[in-house]
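Weekend entry, working from home. Most of the wet-lab plans are on hold until the incubator is repaired, so I used the time to fold the two sequences that have been sitting in the queue since the last round of cloning. Logging both here for the record. First:
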Amino acid sequence: MSSASPIGHVLIVEDEPRLAAVLGEYLHAAGYSHDWIADGAQALGAFRAQQPDLVLLDLMLPNRGGLDICRDLRKESAVPVIMVTARVEEIDRLLGLEIGADDYICKPFSPREVVARVQAVLRRHRHDPHGAPAPGLLIDEDACRASVDGRALDLTQVEFRLLRTLAAAPGRVYSREQLMGRLYADHRIVTDRTVDSHVNNLRRKLADAGGGEDWVRSVYGAGYRFEP
């Protein structure tokens, strides 16, 4: 590694050593640090230990598949995930499953293309340099608090998770099903109307604090996105 600080850390979950090595070399050249896991059963433990900025996740892995890993990641984190698959026809199926991946790439691919996708996804996910995903909005994840221009938002735990999830990826559309997975870690049964109610409450509280009620926008037939 060079003496310069890395611009981000990528966890590569891939069972092909040569491919993982090439990806690592290109990521290193682009300024990223990385680690490699070949066994799907070790992926979540590695993620929790490293807290990477992005996960490159192969679909077909020994001992545990990428779909299950991605679903579990989404229950505890909004970290960007790029799924890697060997078959083009799997892309539509992955999109239909709404597992929460941010992008998909099909083998064989150019390592340069993968690095470009990593850079693009991280740009979408990262907040501005001052930590504000919207003008005046501050989100303190450690304290589970949020404020607009210094005015505290009186949010429930579910509303805070909703705001944190949406604001972490401005412009990204989350389906109601995806939001359910982020908001309720105990797999309780909730309906679309429950998610809509939380969204309406969050919009009202944002507006009451001086923020934009339209920061959380509806996307007809798809879900919601954060767009300040």
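Second, folded right after the first finished:
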Amino acid sequence: MNSLVTILYPLSLLIFILLQGSFYWAILIRRLSNPQFGSGSVPKLYGGFRILDLVLLISVFPFIVWNTQSFQVAILATLIRFVICYN
């Protein structure tokens, strides 16, 4: 069970970051028709997302080390983490 959790945490973080990107592009597309759309609230929202992403990315590696029972799972979870950081 710990192996599953160790893999799911970085994958769920990747999905969370990809959803943020989808919202970002949806807002940009909406701004094409209405240039004032979200001009005040969107920068605050993405500033909060940036801080939340940083905290979650920093917490991935200790989480992997703490919950890993096998070396292969640790390697796989760490590789997923690096894919998240470099994309």
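Plan for Monday: verify the second prediction. The helical segments are 2-33, 41-67, 71-85.
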